[in-house]
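Running this now, will post back.
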Amino acid sequence: MIVFGEHRYFGVSYPFEPEVAFTPEHNVYLRVEQAMADFNGLVKYVRQEYGMQDRACIVFGGSYGGMLAGWLRLKYPHTF
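Update: finished.
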């Protein structure tokens, strides 16, 4: 299975209405740590939903996505 998780604040993944999402009081949620927690939660949900708890999850990417993949592996080694 291939799952492409959309990064918070990109595409249609706004935690607030788009017209206020990037104001100082709301963009505090646009952080790498928040994105990593989102992706960790997404993988847990997918594993539970599809009965895939015993399957490996491989993350990859280039540029920022590649760095994010490496950080995910370091922060959540039990998931990725």
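The two ends are 14 Å apart (CA to CA). More later if anyone needs it.
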